[in-house]
């Protein structure tokens, strides 16, 4: 059969609320045109993030009931540890409450002033934790990653020659570890090939550097390796996952993605000395080593989630749903980052709305239009999220002026929660996107009326500009 179906039946449902266009117009104004400020009950299809927003299976809910809440040595921990060791080959498994907690522990131990941490592309929490330690975070994506239209099959790859240059430039002794993010979230959910991981590992070996993975989406990455990398088609996902983890000396994971849970994280280590130090920090800041910052029931749900996420029918459905959305948007003429990534589609808002300059936030204009038209929540990844006003600009009622710090791309991310929406939901998103596309020349830019001092996209406020302003 050619049709790829959702490989599950739905046992429990959560109603979503239709709103009228007039209601959405009012809600948008009350939220100052910032979708983070819109209550979830006023959103019809929520594509804000794929993190912690997935649906758990009946077996995971059964695990929730089985959870052993003993403070130390809970049965749930040992079940969780056994599953993770079997999947990854790592014997040392520390649970944490989410990915950034693993990152904080790791970089508090290996970071520090004068240190340099290379990554194919740091996710924002990883970068923040590296920099919080006093170290410098350096992104080394391949050049193809900079071109949204380029269809390189492994656009998440690290630029190995650039890694060599960095090591020569700063000296291996200043680099505590090399990190690779699979898949590359900041770069559009693009995968990293096994060949690239092996090449990065070879450079690490030459210089005696540990290789760490930020492996939130390890299973989606493995599926791309199976589908796209020569010689990989006949290998099982588990085999590929095993080989990927075997290359690593340590791993941070946010289980809110491929762990198929709403909360949870992991830190996997091989080095005994580092394990000892990390365990002590875990006890100090998260909780005892057999529960991290979690409840026993969360460990059960994770143990089961990591089992389900490597099933190939699940992955075929997952990756195909995202690809389907990407293909349909492309067919409509909507420019997206190509090829579609594993967990999200990224609309190229600068190409879609060339009349709206970066300082009038074309991505935010598209985000507002998708909400107006269809009650869909997406997120801007461009000048709102990563831009900054020039030092002289008052952070109050002024529009952020031209000449401010600008990111390279103006994107709108449609992130797909796992096992939550069906194909008809996706068809609805496509229909709404078609209407936004038809109105693209009439979309209005915005000015920022309030800019918070940090992570401005969460609480910034906007006003819409008059057409042609
Ligand atoms: C690649 C990557 N690393 C780290 C994190 C941080 O994980 P958490 O949100 O669980 O702290 C995320 C979350 O989106 C991510 O996508």
Q: Please state the average pLDDT score.
A: 94
- Radius of gyration, Cα only, in angstroms? 22 Å
Helix-strand string: HEHHEHEHEHEHEHHEEHHHEHHEEHEHEE
Shape: globular
N-end to C-end Cα span: 53 Å
Q: Proportion of β residues?
A: 5-15%
Which terms would index this structure?
five-stranded mixed sheet, three-stranded antiparallel sheet, 469 residues, alpha/beta, 16 helices, binds pyridoxal-5'-phosphate
Produce the secondary structure layout.
Blueprint: H1 21-30, E1 45-46, H2 58-66, H3 75-88, E2 92-96, H4 99-110, E3 116-119, H5 124-132, E4 136-139, H6 160-170, E5 178-181, H7 194-207, E6 211-214, H8 218-228, H9 237-246, E7 250-254, E8 265-269, H10 272-285, H11 296-308, H12 312-332, E9 344-348, H13 349-352, H14 362-374, E10 376-377, E11 379-381, H15 383-386, E12 411-415, H16 423-438, E13 446-450, E14 461-464
Parallel strand pairs: 1-10, 3-4, 5-6, 6-7
Antiparallel strand pairs: 2-8, 7-8, 9-12, 11-12, 13-14
Helix pairs in contact: 1-14, 2-11, 3-11, 4-5, 6-7, 8-9, 12-16, 14-16
The protein binds pyridoxal-5'-phosphate.
